[in-house]
Amino acid sequence: MTMKAIDLVKPLATWKFWKELVIMTLGMTLAAAAVYYFLMPSNLIIGTITGLSMVLSGVLGAAGITVKVSVMVTVINAILLVMAWLLIGAEFGAKTVYTALILGPLLEFWEWLLPYQQLVEPGSTSVMGDPWFDLLCFVLVLAASQTILFNINASTGGLDILAKIVNKYFHLDIGKSVTVAGGLICCTAFAINPFRMVVIGLIGTWINGIALDYFTASLNRRKRVCIISKDYELIRKFIIDDLYRGCSLYEVTGGYSGEKSMEIQALLTKDEFARLMAFVKDNELNTFITAGNVSEVYGLWHKNPVQRRKKIIPRR
Which domains does the chain have, with CATH numbers? Predict the structure, then answer.
């Protein structure tokens, strides 16, 4: 086996690869359930590749050509992946390929496991009994799925691929690209849906973006903690030796007293912040503490500082 082949196979032997593969599969299974149970029965068209697939399937069906939505999703995603490779290059990795291509088969899985026809009451085209409830359920479940995938640097494919192509060649930022691509897909629903249903789809596309931002911000939220105390050395050691986090020290001067003191700043998770507050309380330390939420952290931040410390400091 050549060195190049070994380099390609090596990631397959890591725990991280298999863990993320399971997470991607579960996330896409959740997304497929949202599409199958909340979009397809009521024929809601949201600004996604699945929505476009539903439109094309309906148009072809009216022309006497039967094509299942799951098959159309797989075909469109495959075409987009080829376009992305040719137009953008190697920006998209195996994660996007995997998630994009398993959506269609997962729709078939839910159809085999529990057909939505068994959940829809006679004379209704909605699992929840109202298209607005279907819309809200779809948005919440899909946003949760997208958050899970984005957290491991993956995506659902489809619209994300189209948005990146728009971003590169029309020079729109990625947020606007998603909005433009989603809005255009929603407008194609005029071919099979009445005006009211198209408007519901456009609103759903907008709400989906809001829900996604909320879930993503909640998942990535950290605490920026500022501590002024004469016992700063004790607190510094606790942050480093017990929480395995870094911190910064600044010399500050009190505007009222004129006294010089040290301020400690650190970025912590919610659990780590709770442990720090418990430490301060248990040791009855005289401190002045402020804490604020930070939604994005870049650079030298580690989700599991304990494992990182074990790698850096070998056991004796």
Answer: 3-219 (no CATH), 222-312 (3.30.70.120)
